[in-house]
Amino acid sequence: MAAPRLVLLGKQGAGKGTQSVRLAEHYAVPHLSTGDMFRAQAALGTAFGLEARRFMDQGELVPDDVVIGVIEECLAPGGPLEGGFVLDGFPRTLPQAKALDRLIKSHPVDVVVDLEVPTDIVIDRIAGRRVCTLCQRVYHVNMPPKVNWTCDDDGAPVVQRDDDTEEAVMRRLALYESQTKPIIDHYRAQDLLVTVDGIGDGDDVFERIVEAVEKRLAQG
Ligand code: AMP
Fold first, then answer.
1. Distance, CA 34 to ligand 1 centroid (Å)?
2. pLDDT classification of 219: cutoffs 50, 70, 90
3. Per annotation, catalytic residue among 53, 172, 208, 216
4. How much is the pTM?
5. Which residues in the chain belong to E strands, given as ranges?
């Protein structure tokens, strides 16, 4: 089977990041997270990263033209993602989804997974979420790393994200409803959408996603 081209949609805290990493490993394709790209640039202190951080810390979206400019090169024909990918956190607005359609006309998306989790559950998950500053691995206050808030994988500090404050989280959830939800209809109209229940154990959710993706891929 050819390496699939997948998009993961879902509210902040739905588990997109964790599941995207696992899917990318499973299918041996690159994982592209625009949020991770912006955080890495902000940590390096580049002008672009510091500008992106201003939006992120307030729970606002980075402007479409900036986001599209950043990922354009990766997605273009002949680029590193031509042969398959998992997109996580992009697209997040209808103009971004339309730009994606244009950019990958020669190698379009195979399946779009909408990871569904009710808002009260994601609020609880985000309030307790802690992430590794190096590899971005996600922990929770109820499931901390083994040693003194340092990452089990690389030993880097595990901290709360700057944009996981209550105010920023509420703003991001509101933006999800107004800006990202319309993308679901966009992909449903293209018959690419599968909806997966994102509640429960991470392994179970992963199995559900793979099953839904395989089924959709088999339909051609
Ligand atoms: P995430 O890690 O996906 O939750 O993204 C963290 C933050 O990065 C978001 O709240 C936005 O401020 C910004 N961001 C990430 N991806 C995008 C995108 N595709 N469009 C606009 N802003 C984005």
1. 6
2. confident
3. 172
4. 0.90
5. 5-9, 31-33, 85-88, 111-116, 129-132, 138-140, 158-159, 193-197
